[in-house]
Structure to design on (343 residues):
């Protein structure tokens, strides 16, 4: 199984060239972080990025998640494998620690969050233990962080990413403290509290199986590239985590096309959150409702039904018996006329 995982992941990684940032960033020679082959390796294809947005939501970088109850999904996503496509910051790694993907694609339309994941990658590779990893988010570790970034990304990109780290490390460190306390109390293992989970995520980076991408779920490039690469490697997209993105988009023709292009199977799931109290929040202090939907079911809704927003799709939810968690399994009614789907 391990050989198959590494082989398929190698095919996926070989089909990508590391996405080049505005500064023309390339990983240093031999660096494996981010799924990039070294410059001497053949490049069979490219993973494209969407353009940077004209403006950010609330003009803010979301360096850390404010969702706290991700473990509400744990039993639904354990050991899914395949490709995990996930927006956001630290929650990408929380979920991946449970789902155990063969390839992890952190995707966010904010360039700063794409860069944050590049920082994560260098620090995962540099830190052999979770304790050492947490230390690298403290101000006292600045020199070690700089060295790790330069080793992984080279002088120019390392310097640029150090500025990213300086801007966010205090917030990330405080988030780690809260997460460690919460999961320590619950006894649910995650990458900050469990050596095996941390080791799994670190190995993903060491093996070049994490590819951060600046992408817009309604865009023209990024998700289409992920779909082509996954298909080429015969890897299903098993987990799509949208966070609360659906609060800010409609199911327009481009979004439908992107969702339908992703190679999903009967084990694939879509995870979403919604900050809407009427849906029922998961726990005190966490102002989100959590939802899970089979991936093929979500694709069916996008293919044949004209529902145009996530809040309307959530009307089809059913109770799971657990506070703050619902699921969508109903087959979609066929709309007439059919929804528009971009080419």
């Amino acid at each position: 199984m391990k050989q198959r995982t590494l082989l398929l992941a190698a095919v996926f990684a070989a089909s990508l060239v590391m996405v080049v940032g505005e500064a023309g960033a390339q990983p240093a020679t031999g660096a494996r972080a981010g799924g990039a082959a070294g410059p001497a390796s053949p490049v069979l294809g490219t993973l494209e990025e969407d353009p940077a947005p004209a403006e950010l939501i609330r003009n803010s970088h979301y360096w850390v998640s404010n969702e706290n109850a991700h473990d509400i999904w744990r039993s639904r996503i354990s050991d899914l494998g395949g490709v995990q496509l996930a927006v956001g910051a630290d929650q990408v790694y929380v979920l991946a620690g449970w789902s155990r993907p063969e390839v992890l694609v952190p995707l966010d339309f904010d360039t700063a969050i794409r860069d944050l994941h590049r920082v994560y990658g260098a620090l995962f590779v540099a830190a052999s233990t979770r304790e050492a990893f947490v230390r690298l988010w403290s101000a006292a570790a600045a020199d070690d962080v700089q060295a790790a970034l330069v080793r992984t990304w080279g002088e120019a990109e390392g310097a640029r990413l150090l500025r990213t780290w300086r801007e966010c490390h205090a917030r990330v460190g405080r988030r780690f403290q809260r997460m460690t306390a919460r999961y320590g109390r619950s006894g649910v293992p995650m990458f900050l509290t469990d050596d095996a989970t941390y080791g799994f995520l670190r190995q993903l980076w060491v093996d070049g199986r994490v590819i951060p991408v600046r992408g817009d779920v309604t865009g023209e490039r990024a998700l289409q590239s992920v779909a082509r690469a996954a298909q080429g490697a015969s890897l299903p997209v098993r987990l799509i985590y949208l966070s609360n993105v659906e609060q800010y988009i409609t199911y327009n023709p481009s979004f439908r096309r992107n969702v339908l292009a992703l190679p999903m199977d009967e084990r694939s799931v879509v995870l979403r959150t919604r900050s809407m109290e009427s849906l029922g929040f998961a726990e005190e202090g966490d102002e989100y409702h959590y939802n899970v939907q089979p991936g093929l079911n979500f694709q069916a809704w996008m293919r044949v039904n004209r529902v145009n927003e996530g809040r309307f799709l959530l009307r089809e939810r059913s109770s799971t018996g657990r506070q703050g968690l619902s699921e969508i399994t109903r087959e979609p009614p066929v709309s007439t006329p059919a929804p528009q789907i971009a080419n």
Observations:
- The mean pLDDT is 88.
- The beta strands are 83-86, 103-108, 213-214, 237-241, 269-274, 289-294, 318-319, 325-327.
- The longest strand covers residues 103-108.
